[in-house]
Amino acid sequence: MEIIGTIKEVFQPTSGTSQRGNAYTTQIILITYGDQYPKDLALTLMTRQVEAYSAHLAPGQRLKFSFDVSSREYNGRFYTECTVWKIESLQPQQQAQPYQATPMPAPAPMPASAPQSQYRAMPNYGPQYGAQAQPQYQQPPSGHPYGPTAENLPFPRQ
User: Fold this and answer.
1) Whole-number Å distance between alpha carbons of 135 and 36
2) What contacts 41, CB < 8 A, 6 or more positions away?
3) With contact defined as beta carbons under 8 Å apart, do 82 and 41 qualify?
């Protein structure tokens, strides 16, 4: 899930050891979300996220939080936790500079006599290489040297 909210409070990190003997750190942040009817939501940061984001979080920041929601049962009661896996800033990284058109440089002049090896003709691939043979040019049916005109089109003009 994703939510955009403002940090209301950042609690101190809590460290501990799991039943398997692994060290972990958690930190809870309280955010406020919603415009018309604001609500509070407690999000939990786990060890890697505490290391990555903890130093950069402060009350009043408006951020985008990506998190997973999970519930577990203990002694007949259910406990729900929102675990953050990514936090994104809503502020652009750099202010966009206004576009300024720069003139294009003049093209370099062509050499008067270029060596033939520099400008080779493309090879002519014929039917022996699997290419289709190019049809020969045919004179347009109108007989006009530059093609049909409005007066000699093969279909009536409307």
Assistant:
1) 71
2) 3, 5, 30, 31, 32, 33, 82
3) yes
Q: Which residues contact residue 32 at a Cβ distance below 8 angstroms, ignoring those fewer than 6 apart?
A: 5, 6, 8, 38, 39, 40, 41
Do 29 and 57 form a contact (C-beta atoms < 8 A)?
yes
Q: Which two tokens stand for residue 35?
A: 């415009």
> pLDDT tens digits for 39-49?
999 999 999 99
Q: What is the pLDDT of residue 55?
A: 87
- Helix ranges (H only) for the chain are 47-53
Residue spans of the chain under pLDDT 70? 92-158
- Please state, in angstroms and rounded to a whole number, the distance separating the CA atoms of residues 1 and 65: 8
Q: How far is CA 151 from CA 19, 79, 138, 139, 146, in A?
A: 94, 86, 20, 17, 13
- Which pTM value belongs to this model? 0.56
* Torsion sign (Cα): 25, 29, 41, 34: negative
How do beta strands 77-89 and 2-10 pair?
unpaired
- φ/ψ of residue 53, rounded to 5: -110, -20
The helix/strand/coil state of 30 is strand
Segment 129-145, tens digit of pLDDT: 555 555 554 555 555 55
